[in-house]
DNA sequence: ATTGTGATGTGCACTCATGAACAGAATTGC
DNA sequence: GCAATTCTGTTCATGAGTGCACATCACAAT
């Protein structure tokens, strides 16, 4: 039983037709405006009247004149037409201009790098409201959780996602001067496993430097683990031992020094990933362009 | 050029489809509610997005989630659906119940006869507003000028008008006692042409008693003419001579007497005429029934 | 792992709404 | 009064939109 016990009109096009007939007073005029044959207009009216059980028009050779019911319908349809027209211009404009919300997501560790860039973008486009969502859980673009995501690591290959190569985060091993105590640098690679290390809580991540640490550093030498980048950073600065950090972040601190020449495989590629449905919109294109131009001024490599 | 330079949406059904998709979150669910195949829903969405130039939904295997644009559309469509539903119930009710305006038209001379009947009807149906329009010009039902007309004379045969036999107005020759001066009644028919007569201004009317007067009474004996029934009535009562009057009206006055037995051909048939489009509506049926029952209590013959 | 379920998406046959042509009627013009 | 115009209304052929079937995919549960 698919019958609507609560009567709701399931032929909006017919109302639209009736509206123009009531407005113009003739079937032919309405047919011309609607771009259909006048026979179609007559059929729409007949169908609608049959459905409503009420005569909407009185037919005569000079045209159709709306009954009270028809005039009532005309007023409602008039309002509807106005609202739809406004909606259309809103939506049209929304497609070509950068307004409304713009949701960007990334892993939390990129936050200090991206925040200023996004702030810049917002100031350049006052009409847009930027929401920067970070978190270790992957925000799913296909559910509309974000317009663009900055992902790190291996290239995502989820379907319906258009992914672009973005930039490269140079990762290196750092330690504080306090820990090193004036030792000669770089530390020879064969001696590294004997150092103390600051590790990560969830090493299940497939980041290459994680795997390097798992493979080359004895478990007992990983003396502490942190679950987020900030705690790792503070532990290293406190002198607990060696640890992986992004070069751009470590270089901001005078007390941190790079202990070995970074291996190329440690580098974490960044990916700009957007949903295919939203990729072509002006808003997404604008933020992508802005992110790329910002990356050009970075000195990450 | 039939191009709409002002963008207005010319596919309301597609908006309705998109509305239900946005509301339910899945194409399949919307298809079931709408009573169409889910492929149709997909095609509607695609068409609408193409038309608006904006993505309304993000597609994924679990369903469709509305973008900002889609949510905007959903709100507008929600309001539209509510308004249409209200309209439908209003119109549905209007078809089966007697409410709103009811326009009745007749020739002016029937006004005193019909007015109390219409007043009765209004009091029996408080929801209806009765407009009683009299005038010598014929109000055209097909232009929506009236719901029901009471016509006198020969049966109207206009197309699209359903006409019913109503009642018969008995017309007879009357004169005031002052004019007669106590003569014996009835006046022999062969002496009638020698009497003085009160006539009508527009004798072009095809009423049978008009023609009788034209045919049987010498022109110079029609000593006065009036353009409306009231002036004729007053002239007769003033004693100017003989004149045709409706029996129901003349019988109200003590000073008026019937001078000859009325000829059957003088009687004026009344017709109830309605437009075919409105004839079946409850409102029209109600007033017709009321008029007929009122006629049963009349003593016109 | 594997099966099951409930989604979206697409090619193909078909039906139904549409469009073209014509007829009828009323009003307008000369 | 007669022709011209402008409507409505109906019939019939056609094409666009629809429904069906099947493929595909994602998630959940056993």
Protein described:
The structure is a homodimer of 301-residue chains. Helix content of chain A is 41%, strand content 22%. Chain A is of the alpha/beta class. Chain A has three domains: 12-96, Winged helix-like DNA-binding domain superfamily/Winged helix DNA-binding domain (Arc Repressor Mutant, subunit A), CATH 1.10.10; 100-164 and 274-296, D-Maltodextrin-Binding Protein, domain 2; 171-266, D-Maltodextrin-Binding Protein, domain 2, CATH 3.40.190.10. Chain A starts with 11 loop residues before the first helix and ends in a 5-residue tail after the last helix. Chains A and B meet through helix 1, helix 2, strand 1 and helix 4 of A and helix 1, helix 2, strand 1 and helix 4 of B.
How many strands appear in the DSSP assignment of chain A? 12
What is the percentage of strand-forming residues of chain A?
15-25%
CATH top level of the largest domain in chain A is Alpha Beta
Q: Separation of termini of chain A?
A: 66 Å
Domain count of chain A, please report it: 3
Largest sheet of chain A: 5 strands, mixed
Rg of chain A, Cα atoms, Å: 32 Å
**Number of helical segments with 4 or more residues of chain A:** 11
User: Biggest interface in this structure?
Assistant: A-B, 58 and 58 residues
Return the average pLDDT of chain A rounded to an integer: 85
Percent helix of chain A: 40-55%
Order of helices and strands of chain A: HHHEEHEHEEEEHEHEHEHEEHH
- Order of strands, main sheet of chain A, comes to 4-3-5-12-6
What is the CATH architecture assignment of the largest domain in chain A?
3-Layer(aba) Sandwich
User: What spatial form of chain A do the alpha-carbon principal axes imply?
Assistant: rod-shaped
CATH topology of the largest domain in chain A: D-Maltodextrin-Binding Protein, domain 2
| Low-confidence blocks of residues of chain A | 1-5
Full CATH superfamily name of the largest domain in chain A:
Periplasmic binding protein-like II
């Amino acid at each position: 039983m698919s019958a609507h016990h609560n009567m709701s009109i399931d032929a909006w096009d017919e109302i639209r037709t009736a509206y123009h007939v009531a407005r113009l007073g003739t079937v032919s005029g309405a047919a011309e405006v609607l771009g259909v044959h006048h026979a179609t207009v007559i059929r729409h009216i007949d169908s609608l009247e049959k459905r409503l059980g009420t005569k909407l028009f009185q037919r005569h050779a000079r045209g159709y004149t709306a009954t009270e019911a028809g005039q009532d319908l005309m007023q409602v349809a008039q309002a509807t037409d106005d609202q739809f027209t406004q909606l259309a211009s809103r939506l049209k404009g929304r497609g070509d201009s950068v307004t409304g919300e713009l949701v960007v997501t990334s892993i939390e560790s990129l936050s200090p790098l991206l925040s200023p860039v996004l702030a810049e973008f917002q100031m350049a486009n006052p009409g847009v409201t930027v929401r920067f969502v970070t978190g270790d859980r992957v925000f799913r673009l296909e559910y509309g959780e974000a317009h663009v995501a900055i992902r790190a690591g291996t290239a995502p290959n989820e379907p319906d996602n258009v992914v672009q190569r973005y930039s490269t985060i140079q990762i290196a091993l750092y330690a504080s001067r306090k820990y090193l105590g004036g030792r000669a640098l770089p530390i020879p690679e064969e001696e590294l496993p004997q150092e103390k290390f600051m590790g990560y809580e969830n090493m299940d991540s497939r980041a290459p430097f994680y795997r390097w640490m798992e493979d080359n550093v004895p478990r007992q030498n990983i003396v502490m683990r942190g679950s987020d980048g900030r705690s790792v950073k503070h532990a290293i600065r406190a002198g607990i031992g060696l640890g992986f950090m992004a070069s751009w972040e470590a270089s901001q601190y005078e007390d941190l020094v790079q202990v070995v020449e970074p291996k190329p495989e440690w580098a974490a590629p960044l990916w700009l990933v957007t949903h295919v449905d939203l990729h072509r919109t002006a808003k997404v294109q604008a933020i992508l362009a802005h992110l790329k131009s910002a990356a050009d001024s970075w000195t990450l490599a």
